[in-house]
Structures are given as structure tokens and as C-alpha cells.
UniProtKB/TrEMBL annotation:
Residues 69-83 have a biased composition (Basic and acidic residues). Residues 68-98 are annotated as: Disordered. It comes from the Bacteria. This is DUF4287 domain-containing protein.
């Protein structure tokens, strides 16, 4: 599953866009460099029933922003993304792929 597919599935499950979840995480201080991924995963599990795979995609965005390594773009396999910049504003507002 690609990073973007994980984020889209998180939106389906929670009803919140990835950007909204990032904003909530920031209010909790989870974007601080000292906060470990496990702490964020525990919050996502407790409040949104997200598992580790989905949670780690969101941890990446919370801690590092929406840009992913270009090695995932256009590569073969299930983890291929169309762009190195993830869309955080919801599936409905995502520009169509060219």
C-alpha cells in the first residue's frame, strides 16, 4: 500500500483528513522531536482505532511533513506513489492525476 493510500484509508476510517489529524497531533505536542513514534501510535489506536501500518504513515507526516523519499515515486510494487508530496487535504479535494 502506498503512503497516499494509507492516508486515504485513514480518512475513510476516521472521517478526518490527514491535515486535520496532523493539526490535532500538533496541539498535543506530538510534532516535538523528542516524542517517539510509539507515543503517537498509542494515541492513534486509542482515539481512532488505527493500526500500526496506518499509524506509521501518519507518524511520518506528523514528524517529517508531507514529502516522502522519491524512491517511492513511480517505482514498481505496492508502495509506489504518484508524487513525492502527499495530499493531506482530503480525497474529495485531491487534484486528478495526469
Amino acid at each position: 500500500m502506498s503512503f497516499q493510500a494509507y492516508l486515504d484509508a485513514i480518512e475513510d476510517k476516521t472521517g478526518l483528513t490527514p491535515r486535520q489529524l496532523v493539526e490535532i497531533a500538533e496541539t498535543k505536542g506530538f510534532n516535538d522531536p523528542s516524542v517517539k513514534a510509539g507515543t503517537i501510535l498509542e494515541w492513534l489506536k486509542a482515539d481512532y482505532d488505527l493500526g500500526r501500518g496506518h499509524g506509521m504513515a501518519l507518524v511520518h507526516v506528523i514528524k517529517k511533513g508531507p514529502q516522502i523519499d522519491s524512491k517511492h515515486v513511480g517505482s514498481e510494487g505496492t508502495h509506489r506513489d504518484e508524487s513525492d508530496m502527499l495530499w493531506l487535504d482530503g480525497k474529495a479535494s485531491k487534484p486528478a492525476s495526469s
